[in-house]
Design goal:
Length: about 475
């Protein structure tokens, strides 16, 4: 049987190599990788181009209400289309539990939002805001059985944070089922104390959002989350690390063998808190949590990207429009604590990372593949994605590494009315994106029907090379707390 599609003449980039090869696709999978492949019902000319695993966006908020019930501007249709134009062939948004809601109900809600809409494959990370016995004993094991093998918890936001004990409970269940816990790490009481002081002084403009969430609040919370994960020797993924101190702490614990992963985001590498000083309410466009910091932090975070502290650079796409449906749902003069946190970026994540990372010589092409796709696939159990090798899904992005143009809102194909990347000069853009062998985007045109994207059931995290840490008190080998060790 022949190939449906052959991609020929391109330079293939994997997580470890760069080489000239053609790719043969059959039944939506990569069937052959060889110097020259003849035939193919469709032949795609990739000469002068880079052929890479399609991006996997593992941190994005799609068709999700904020903790104060403001709906994101992007749903599974516009969000997946924007992702595909930006070089992705898979994304993993969050399915968020409201307190009191059953996990079955959460999953059913997000299934109904996703079905018939996505143009690329998807899965969910569950957000747990209410770790009741029913959730821990029934809900989460049922979620694993469906292939949802990651949960996110919050250490901040009054309506979301579950306390240290709740985190230990979730980490323990995650460990027993082969899942990973993700954490948004900021000390809630530090932020609330800062909010009270700022409010008392009448300082409520967007710029004070950055001041209200100090670097120390992140550093403290990351340290605490890691300590909790060590007590139960469970894997942990620290999302959107924004500080040098946090990154250094993560690097040190990884060197000790702790089962610890992390990511940073383009906004922390590209923007500084001066962006929030723009006149009027413009600064609200750049409000996200944790906040963007300063140029010294950017340099430190780049060194952590280059040296492997971070598994991925994720967008944290949290699209709230600059109008009454989004940022100003509580009025155009709302004080910063009542303005939705988050900024869009799923369409710019990869072009921006390619341009600032690869084109400027900060990271290698294989590192780009690791940070954009392959690491997320291994950590989050997408076992058929994130590689160019026989047997894997033909989820492939073909990039023109030389094309230079300025980022515009129109390029994003999302449902937003601004992009924080507006006007930035970007060298390196995706040209063609395939999902299970089908062309989804080609030269600026959408070629796929919404609904072709499928839910992907995931496996367990790959913890190879991470011995972990056993708290002596819970180490069965030492027989102290053997009876209660997770
Ligand atoms: O500011 C952000 N990142 N908003 C999205 C919600 C969250 O904190 O993850
Ligand atoms: Zn050829
Ligand atoms: Zn977060
Ligand atoms: Zn987020």
């Amino acid at each position: 049987k022949g190939f449906e599609t052959v991609i020929h003449g391109g330079t293939v980039v994997t997580a470890s190599e760069v080489f000239r090869a053609d790719i043969g696709i059959a039944d939506g999978r990569i069937a052959a990788v060889a110097e020259t492949i003849a035939g193919g019902e469709t032949r795609i000319d990739a000469s002068g181009k880079l052929v890479m695993p399609g991006g996997i966006e593992a941190h994005c908020h799609i068709a999700q209400e904020s903790s104060s019930k403001i709906m994101t501007a992007d749903d599974y249709r516009s969000g997946s289309i924007s992702a595909a134009f930006g070089g992705h062939s898979c994304f993993v948004p969050f399915a968020a539990q409201h307190r009191g809601q059953s996990i079955d109900d959460v999953i059913a809600t997000y299934d109904s939002r996703a079905e018939g809409n996505a143009v690329i494959d998807y899965s969910y990370h569950l957000i747990i805001s209410d770790p009741s016995p029913e959730v821990l004993e029934v809900g989460l094991p049922r979620a694993f059985a469906r292939g949802i093998t990651s949960f996110k918890v919050f250490m901040t936001y009054d309506l979301m944070n579950i306390g240290d004990g709740g985190m230990l409970d979730i980490m323990t269940v995650a460990k027993q089922n082969g899942a990973i816990t993700m954490v948004h790490a900021e000390n809630n009481d530090m932020v609330k104390w800062m909010n009270r002081r700022l409010a008392a002084a009448g300082l409520t403009q967007p710029r004070y959002h950055a001041i209200s969430r100090p670097a120390l609040a992140e550093e403290e919370a990351i340290g605490r989350a890691v300590a909790l994960a060590k007590l139960v020797d469970a894997p942990l993924f620290v999302v959107h690390c924004s500080t040098a101190e946090g990154a250094t702490l993560i690097q040190r614990e990884r060197l000790r063998g702790v089962k610890l992963f992390s990511e940073t985001c383009p906004q922390y590498l590209a923007l500084t808190r001066e962006a929030l000083d723009r006149p009027g309410m413009e600064g609200a466009k750049f409000m996200c949590s944790p906040p963007v910091r300063d140029s010294a932090t950017q340099e430190a975070l780049w060194r952590h990207v280059a040296s492997g502290t971070f598994a991925s650079v994720s967008s944290d796409h949290a699209p709230y429009r600059f109008d009454a449906t989004g940022k100003f749902a509580n009025g155009t003069e709302a004080p910063y604590p009542k303005i939705a946190n988050g900024m869009p970026g799923i369409g710019m994540r990869l072009p921006w990372l390619f341009s600032e990372g690869v084109s400027k010589g900060r990271i290698t092409l294989p590192q780009f593949v690791q940070l954009s796709s392959s690491n997320a696939a291994r950590i989050f159990g997408l076992d058929r994605k994130g590689a160019i090798a026989p047997g894997f899904d033909a989820d492939i992005a073909i990039w023109n590494p030389r094309e230079t143009r300025k980022a515009t809102l129109a390029d994003q194909h999302d449902n937003m009315d601004y992009t924080p990347f507006e006007g930035m000069e970007i060298t390196g853009w995706p040209e063609t994106v395939l999902s299970r062998g089908a062309v989804v985007v080609h030269q600026g045109a959408l070629r796929a029907e919404p609904g072709r994207g499928r839910f992907v059931a995931r496996r367990r995290v790959d913890l190879t090379g991470m011995p972990g840490y056993r708290a002596p008190e819970l180490d069965p080998a030492r027989n102290f707390g053997a009876e209660i060790a997770p």
